[in-house]
């Protein structure tokens, strides 16, 4: 049976969710329907993935068929960087709700700490190819996020891709009303994130791991990049448990008390990624997998490296 973690607001967040980044609009509706039929109750979305309308169609259909009730689902979305201006946050959230055809989100995250120039470009670039920042501050953006909770549009709020100093800034905000319940970050054996996870857990913040399989379908992959799914050392561990490499990569994160959101649009893999609750990795294998850390990021957001709020110059 799939597990869950309890957030600081008391809500139960299912441990394994379906990721939807890079899921094409033509395929994501079917993927979400398959996932819900298989028992997934947590769907991870974002405005910038440009497929929330199609995700919403699937959720709507499963609610109508009474396969699930709304309160059984845990739906997450994220505020994109071009909407960090305080007065734009509510509209951005309402657009997501309208696309998803929902009247509330279980969790709404600030997708990145970096604010971008508002407009129709999701990545507004200057002539040199660098992102054009907005003159916003994520602590101000957080105040607008808090207002969404009070308005009943979202049940809980959190952050994504924040380093520990950025989380600290939010936690130390004078008059803080709601603390972040989650920090969603990239995490896998090549980027184990021990220090940041330890920090978050010490503050009662649940960590969600994205790209748990190393996002092999990322658009900017290079042939020489390391591949988690093809790593013979991880394959050897998987063989020992009669599991797939993907299942071991997901289980590795579950055993670290993380929420994990593997993405797939392939029904067999959607099923496989959920079958991670019937085995346990030994302490020795956990330690071995942790030792493969090489601080390698799928999502380094290099076009933002000169942004004042770029999160990855800090060690954690």
> What is the SS-derived class?
alpha/beta
- Total count of helical runs of at least 4 residues: 10
Helix content: 25-40%
Number of strands: 10
Into which percentage range does the β-strand content fall? 5-15%
The major beta sheet can be summarized as:
8 strands, parallel
Strand order, biggest sheet? 3-4-5-6-7-8-9-10
Let me know the average pLDDT: 97
Low-confidence stretches: none
Would you list the SSEs in sequence order as H and E? EEEHEHEHEHEHEHEHHEHH
Tell me the span between the first and last alpha carbons: 33 Å
Rg for CA atoms: 19 Å
- Could you say which overall geometry the principal axes of the C-alpha atoms support? globular
Architecture overview:
- The mean pLDDT is 97.
- 34% of the residues lie in helices and 12% in strands.
- It is an alpha/beta fold and 316 residues long.
- The chain has an eight-stranded parallel sheet.
- Strand 3 (18-19), helix 1 (25-38) and strand 4 (42-44) form a beta-alpha-beta unit.
- Helix 1 (25-38) crosses helix 9 (267-274).
- The protein is globular and about 55 Å long.
- The protein has ten helices and ten strands.
Q: How are the SSEs ordered, and which strands pair?
A:
Layout: E1 4-6, E2 12-14, E3 18-19, H1 25-38, E4 42-44, H2 52-64, E5 74-79, H3 86-100, E6 107-110, H4 138-150, E7 157-160, H5 164-171, E8 182-186, H6 194-202, E9 206-210, H7 232-240, H8 245-254, E10 259-260, H9 267-274, H10 283-290
Parallel strand pairs: 3-4, 4-5, 5-6, 6-7, 7-8, 8-9, 9-10
Antiparallel strand pairs: 1-2
